[in-house]
Amino acid sequence: PLSALSKFGNINNDTPFWLLDETLEPREREVAIQLGARKLDFDGLVGIISHALSPEGDDSRPLAAARAGDIELIARIHDILLDGFEELDRTKNSLQAISLKKKMREIALFPDSRGKLFDAATILVPEHGLRPIYKGVRKLLHPDLASDSATQHDPEQTEEAAEKIAITSRTTALLTRLGVTRLTGDQLLRDLEHVIGNATMLEDASS
To answer: pLDDT tens-digit profile of 102-127?
Structure first.
């Protein structure tokens, strides 16, 4: 039934298509497929997400809230994408995984502390204790998704805290697959050496 479908714009912005309601019973889904509904593969899903999160995307479309910094929705997108990679691992489809990894590194999937989205080559994940030092200087992953701001395991932790750790671990796993850069103590030392070196050069020049 049409009431079981949600309108979703086509990637090419011309002919719309619809996504089947995920709450349908298995038998109802089978009937929809028999009537001509097509299964959306992981490659197609990545294409939809790429288009929906692009700066030129339509604000009235599903996933548009992610561009506005909806952290809960972004975390769900990360979870779905990681599920896709894990399924490719199970089927040993390494070639498709490599191809999709390249595509996904170019998609602005990861929000900074203000909720603005950046790609995996731009966003950075700091180690514990480094966020205050680099705040406002580098593009750091939003603290609600970053492992450096997650509370360490505590037997008496609240359900909310446990859920946050689960969310950050999924985002961290996706970032690891995409080769995101991590801010470490070694990077801090290199940055300090660079700053001190520049300061020394200016002091020598002025003397």
So the answer is: 888 988 989 998 889 999 889 988 88
Look up residue 117 and give its DSSP letter: E
Dist CA 142 CA 111 (whole Å):
6
- CB 20 within 8 Å of CB 29: yes
Query: Whole-model pTM?
Result: 0.69
Phi, psi values for residue 2, rounded to 5°:
-65, -25
Cα gap 143→167, rounded to integer Å: 11
Q: By three-state DSSP, how is residue 121 classified?
A: coil
Task: Report which secondary-structure segment, H or E, holds 7.
Answer: strand 5-8
**DSSP string across 81-123:** HHHHHHHHHHTT-HHHHHHHHHHHTTS--EEBTTS-EE-TTT-
Residues 60, 157: Cα–Cα separation, whole Å: 39
